[in-house]
Amino acid sequence: MIETPIGEALHRLLHAYKRAMREAYRDIGIELAIAHIRTLKLIHQFQASTGAPCTAQAIAIRLERDKAQIARLVKDLLSAELIEKQSNPDDGRSQLLTVTHHGEAMLERIRMAERQASQRMAAGLSNEELTTFIRLGNTMTANLGEPEGRRQSSKSIPQEK
Amino acid sequence: MIETPIGEALHRLLHAYKRAMREAYRDIGIELAIAHIRTLKLIHQFQASTGAPCTAQAIAIRLERDKAQIARLVKDLLSAELIEKQSNPDDGRSQLLTVTHHGEAMLERIRMAERQASQRMAAGLSNEELTTFIRLGNTMTANLGEPEGRRQSSKSIPQEK
DNA sequence: AAGGCATAGTTGACAAAATCAACCAGATAA
DNA sequence: TTATCTGGTTGATTTTGTCAACTATGCCTT
Known about the structure:
two-stranded antiparallel ribbon; 6 helices; homodimer; 61% helix; globular; Arc Repressor Mutant, subunit A; mainly alpha; 6% strand; disordered C terminus
């Protein structure tokens, strides 16, 4: 077969992965798009790991996305009543986002769907191999994440360590 | 930091990678989108490895994309005179695609841009680690690529081995 | 030879993902 | 008080991707 460099391997894997995830979500009756699901998961993880609510700014930083896109994703999740917002007492411009009970239930269904697809993806690979893959992937992401300039949404935002 | 499973690591890496590639292409004055570039590269690789021209069907199979999308990508590349087509003598429905000299020159510029970004991405990693990453990635892609049904563009098309 | 089915490619429509720019209200620093 | 920065919003656009229906051609069966 044709030799594939890293970039090509990545494209193919993420495309296959997204397709598998979409099918798994659809099989369970979840109609959320993948970006919405990632955002919902991040809001929940933020709460769980810091004990504090999340902000749109934190999501934009963590996902390295344009804040405009995050705003639209958050708006959709609010409309679906999967998250809710309160005014931030420390910053009048900002809202604190938390996952609702409805959102918690949705997250549980998402986990079920992902478990199945992830097991299929990882078939024949040891835990060590999976850990190695994640480590190498995160290293490359970090390598790419130190820009020389022109990054928009995070141009003057310090990278979290 | 928050633990990231494989899916999350993949999303972040490909997003960072695509952004780095776009910046590298832009720095060199290339205005093609990434999907167009991947298609152009594939047509060239197909020629180089088989000695025969490429077809839209072969691209759809190799990239695992909907044939409608491939048709649009091919149309754009034809308009940009990066590739050209001839009627397939063996199949009146099909056209054979080849890269033009203009396309060859574009590919050379693309390789220069990618070399720089790839080196930055791979900083600190050995060749063995990069090879391992690609191998694991391709294994997972293959795991996901054996559908139980509902795949559109490749539903009745046998997977290449 | 004719009919039925499958296929290569095209087109329309739509959804998802992502970026860029401009804006407003609030926060901070001088 | 003023200037600058920031969190978030909205509009516009580009890129990526999927689904369905269609046409012309190819293949198989009768």
